[in-house]
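During the reporting period the student researcher (J.K.) took over the structure-prediction task from the postdoctoral fellow and processed the backlog of single-chain submissions. One of the processed entries is reproduced below for the supervisory committee.
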Amino acid sequence: MRNTMRVRFVILALLLIASIVPNLGFQVNTFGFSWNFYRMIIAAAVIVTLVLFRGELEIRQQRGFLLWMGFLVAWFIYGLIQIVTFPYADLSRGMQELFTLLCALFVFYIFSCIRIDREEYERLLRLVFFLLAALIILGFFEILSGKHLSTSMFNDPSNKVAWKMDIHSAAGVMYNVNDFSSLITLMCPLVIGRYRAQMGRFRFDFGWILVACVFLINRQNTATICNMSILLGILLYILLMIRRNRRRVGTLMLLILAVVVLGIGLILILGADQKGLVGQWMDQLTKNDVGKGSMHARLLIYQDALDVSLKTGFLGLGPGGFPVYFGAHGSTSGFVNPHSYLLEILSQYGLLILFGFLALLVYLLYRLSLILKTGASEESERLGRMGVLIIAVLLVTSFASSSYMLNNYNWGILALLIKGIEMEGRHRA
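J.K. obtained the following structure tokens:
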């Protein structure tokens, strides 16, 4: 029995690690198809799950996973229809995007099938803690040494943008710095409350040290959107703590004020020149000064994305269609990528798919609100806070990277969150 429980934990742990670090520097090609670490783990996990745990399948009892899996199937089928019938759908990139959705479906399936208890779930969260710590160490090494992994944009001779960037930035296990900052920022809500030390009457949470390190890496990467997400997350966390213990409202309100003042100070002071970030933003908005940041260009590509969505009747360009369309027609910003997860979904897959995606996030928030409202234990409260922060951070960081459709980490983290919600629901039943 103990060995079986260990196998369950190992499967989910490997899936979680692979979704965050999908490529370990090797891959196997079969008939033109590439098998990286992530895809190998998914295939092996599906086989082991069907062989060892086929008598334990609980999919029908887990509404959260059922809804998401049904949505992913509908998204996948609609994408296939688009590839066949839509003129701007790109076969190569489009199939990569759809395969990413298919992998997400399998990740959700495996998480829904394998039964674990609260102790094992906490161990998975602690695993994320150490994984984030390792990524932070890698990030600081890159910043201090200027050396990067072979998969980084800084080691890609064809990437002319990287030639103009400061090599003392962190791309980590991702290709570019924005993707890496988005990854480690989304991991932040999972590490708070995992490890604590008692100091007199106070408990010190080591998770906040990791959050501070992520903030510094984002600052070096000029990933301002990610740091805005962290500040929003801190404010949300404090508000949720106030809701839990009203006796400490006065102290916590002072903490909120301190965080707001600190955030404003960082925005005003930590700029590349004497104007600070606010001055740079105003230059971009009023003078079209894109040399000091991408805000103006991002606003232009957002407008272009909305315009092209309207032209398609909100049916979408099709999988991989965004760079194809704007590569052929040009964009007012000069970008050919949407730089927004939500607009990427809208412009390529249409309004219905975007609505389904957002509706399921709202459904998760509803389930989390019930947990927070009736939370009977510290674990329940912590799960509720963590879930709310994950969704908030995901929505804000969705505007950080140039493209999200080929990323895996957001699906792995969502699967872990849904697993916690379903476990909490089963525990109360």
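The committee noted the following: Residues 118-145 form the longest helix (28 residues).
J.K. will present the remaining backlog at the next meeting.
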